[in-house]
Amino acid sequence: MMADAWDYKGRAAVRSSSGGWSSAAMILGVELNERLTTLGIAVNLVTYLTGTMHLSSAASANAVTNFLGASFMLCLLGGFVADTYLGRYLTIAIFTAVEASGMAVLTVSTAAPGLRPPPCDDPPSAAAVCVAPNGTQLGVLYLGLYLTALGTGGLKSSVSGFGSDQFDESDAGERRRMARFFSWFFFFISIGSLLAVTALVYAQDHLGRRWGYGACVVAILLGLAVFLAGTTRYHFKKLVGSPLTQIAAVTAAAWRKRALPLPPDPAQLYDVDGAGEDVKQGKKKMPHTKQCRFLERAAIVEAPPSPAPCTLTDVEEVKQVVRMLPTWATTIPFWTVYAQMTTFSVTQAEAMDRRLGGFEIPAGSLTVFLVGSFLLTVPVYDRLVVPLARRLTGNPHGLSPLQRISVGLLLSTLAMAAAALAETRRRRQGAPSSVFLLVPQFFLVGAGEAFTYVGQLDFFLRECPRGMKTMSTGLFLSTLSLGCFLSTAIVSIVHAATSSGGRRPWLTDDLDKGRLDSFYWLLAAMSAANLVAFLGVARGYVYNENRLAAADVPIKLLAHDDDDVVLVHA
């Protein structure tokens, strides 16, 4: 029997007859289809918006980044709903169905002639005139996109956590199997990404969008059927509440008590019991820190009938999240650079020679170099960089999480410089340049993603308090979301600024008439400035392990839900 998990009938789960690999494997297909769908839309959407819907390059790029940004930001909503109301199982099931409905709407939008504007050469007498899409056509298209984004955000927030729920962390063998699950989880994400940028993009370009999107609907529904078939074998865990609620409660209580004086001795503030553990929440008492003392007012005990105070441990957990915010903010621009690989870099590829023998490479499939670079960099880092870094730094892990992120930010800066140089060369050549001129920018961003992605994940998993461990995924995914939204804002500002006064804008439908190279140089300069800011932030950051050691608090390592470790009090 397992003390913290139940079966589908609400009985204590029996490890021998439920959970484990047989259950976890039925969850993997949901994530594969999510990656296939989201990336398959993102990397090839700009060509549909410019070529079929007749939107401008800037508007198309913003539509793509807004879709990606919404997908990642809605993970916060999905996580809140799962932790507070529905649980991970129902959240995955419901939002997978929502994703399938969104893809069905997209399929109809791309298949029905009345939901697309007429081609630019129809009628022939108006060959040079492209009719803009009407409100209904755009409305149906965006309905499909954002239903898909809602479904993606909801299920993505819970898939990895529900997979880890199928293993008993108190058993050493189960923990090893959990680690294998996360390896396979990453493998399925990679397979979904590769299928999206190759087979799915090819189907969209050569068979038609309706066939590519329709195949996604079928795949999602099949994955959902397999997921539901495992219901009787899953482990289910109780709702623990959202860390967003805790942050809101501490902030609101501190503001309400802002006029009250803080006691000179922190021991006078309300906290978990003397044994150091909150039985209800499963939390360990955290040592007091001197930063952000305003928040400690939330733990001041008031006379009845005032509301019960927050515990000082709750306050310290919120403080730790606040300490992480500067690092969080300075990783956002990396994902702004990453967003260009699915927007303007695809537009560049469309204007170049994509022939490889007798085969023409789809413009969206250039992102295969992005995915391939990521997959190549991870083992190279583990086999070559880590041993070298161990000798140079003495760190058993090679590079620290913040050092890994800094390498990723440097590579993203170099990628924008490479993109600007490639665009300058393309403009100067009379004949169409080979599309392989763009490989360095895709490769550098992919390698940068391997450093930044893994570094961020490691940082947020390790540094988030144990009592707020679900916050780690939300913080990480929010940087992806805000990076996409920042790209939208930059594109809008640049387009407005460079087209004012009758000037020719940098971002035009015809790249030869614009200055995309200048836009890339701007992003390179912004990335370089952000790298400097990040290095300053990283230099002043103290890891939990070092902070707790300085406070003489014993610590131990525990397996984390997302295949990593976090520090908690012994």
Give the termini distance in whole angstroms: 25 Å
User: CATH-wise, what's the superfamily of the largest domain?
Assistant: MFS general substrate transporter like domains
Whole-number radius of gyration? 25 Å
CATH top-level class of the largest domain:
Mainly Alpha
Structural class: mainly alpha
Strand coverage percent:
under 5%
Largest sheet: 2 strands, antiparallel
Total number of distinct structural domains: 3
What's the arrangement of strands in the largest beta sheet? 1-2
H/E series, N to C?
A: HHHHHHEEHHEEHHHHHHEE
Briefly note the CATH topology name of the largest domain: Growth Hormone, Chain: A
Helix content: 55-70%
Summarize the SSE layout with pairings:
Blueprint (H helix, E strand, L loop, with lengths): L20 H31 L5 H55 L23 H31 L6 H35 L2 H21 L13 H14 L20 E2 L4 E2 L27 H29 L3 H7 L4 E2 L2 E2 L7 H26 L7 H28 L10 H25 L7 H29 L16 H25 L3 H7 L4 E5 L5 E5 L1
Antiparallel strand pairs: 1-2, 3-4, 5-6
Helix pairs in contact: 1-2, 1-3, 1-4, 1-5, 1-8, 2-3, 2-5, 2-12, 4-5, 4-9, 7-10, 7-11, 7-12, 7-13, 9-11, 10-11, 10-13, 11-12
What this model shows, in words?
Helices cover 64% and strands 3% of the residues. It is globular. It has 3 domains: 1-120 and 130-239, Growth Hormone, Chain: A, CATH 1.20.1250; 243-316, no CATH class; 323-570, MFS general substrate transporter like domains (Growth Hormone, Chain: A). The longest helix has 55 residues, at 57-111. The protein has 570 residues and is mainly alpha-helical. Helix 1 crosses helix 2 and helix 1 (21-51) runs antiparallel to helix 3 (135-165). The two termini are 25 Å apart. Keywords: Membrane, Transmembrane, Transmembrane helix.
